[in-house]
Amino acid sequence: MLKLENICFTRNNKVILDNISLSIEDDIFVAITGPNGSGKSTLASIIMGIISPDSGKILFNGTDVTNLGLEERAKLGIAFAFQQPVKFKGLSVYDILKLAANSEISKKKACEILSSVGMCADFYLNRELNSSLSGGELKRIEIATVILRNSTLTIFDEPEAGIDLWSFNNLIEVFKSIRTNITGTTLVITHQEKILNIADKIILLNDGKLSYYGEQKKIINNLYQSCNCNDKKGCAKHEC
Fold first, then answer.
1. Burial code of 198-215, b = ≥16 C-beta within 10 A, e = fewer?
2. What is the pTM of this model?
3. Which residues pair with 214 in a beta bridge?
4. Quick check: 237 pLDDT over 60?
5. How far from chain centre, in Å, is Cα 10?
6. Contact 78, 60 (CB under 8 A)
7. Tens of pLDDT, residues 36-63
8. I need a labelling partner for 176 at 20 to 30 A (CA). Which of 13, 145, 191, 224 fits?
9. Of 33, 52, 41, 44, which Cα lies nearest the Cα of 206?
């Protein structure tokens, strides 16, 4: 279980997170949403240990991790998938999968993992992780590395950002598969209704405060009422 107690964070005299407290159960899919600037990415970064809160406490499976760094939290079973996946010049897709697994996995196993995220293993396994890969391809490769880590808690920061519609539709199928087949808790920061609909629970932030944490079905129909764009269902930029 992940438990946040009175998390506060201020930057440049602006309150980004204001006394956030909640408990996230094991083995569920949770979406974090809210207006731009509401503190979503900051909250995720604090959970991962990329930045430290000004005050408050973070407990992970009963262990106080508030003052632990990113590497120490990763060893405890917390993984983070960045909004912009990192490119590694000189490393192949197979290389990065072996690093993620922390073992000499077979090509057959690597192919199975790539297939699980909708990628043709024969085409990608020996490709270099560079700019020749699209944003959507890099996102799915990163998700494959997360699956191999078999983390207890995995955090995705706006995985839909910067990818085309075809890649987005494939991404939705990958997240559906993760929710159904992968053990552990998944946290996804998102504006996308299709991802919100997959979630078991939703965290709604507004002006750095926790507005709602609970069952997805109890809030999903109200999330888009204040969106003024013409495509509420597909909009990734609106403010909920």
1. bbbbbbbbbebebebbee
2. 0.81
3. 202
4. no
5. 23
6. yes
7. 899 999 999 999 999 999 999 999 999 9
8. 224
9. 33
User: How many residues can be counted in the chain?
Assistant: 240
**CATH of region 25-51+67-222:** 3.40.50.300
Yes or no: say if 92 and 37 are a contact pair by the CB < 8 Å rule: no
Supply the DSSP string of the chain, one letter for each residue. -EEEEEEEEEETTEEEEEEEEEEE-SS-EEEEE-STTSSHHHHHHHHHTSS--SEEEEEETTEE-TT--HHHHHHHTEEEE-SSPPPEEEEEHHHHHHHHHTS---HHHHHHHHHHTT--HHHHTT-EESTTS-HHHHHHHHHHHHHHHT-SEEEEE-TTTT--HHHHHHHHHHHHHHHHH--SEEEEE---HHHHTT-SEEEEEETTEEEEEEEGGGTGGGTTTT--SS-TTT-SSS--
CB 203 within 8 A of CB 42: no
Residue 81: both structure tokens together: 């998938």
Per-residue pLDDT of 69-110, as tens digits, reads: 988 998 899 988 765 556 667 889 898 888 888 778 888 888
CA 124/CA 187 separation, integer angstroms: 27
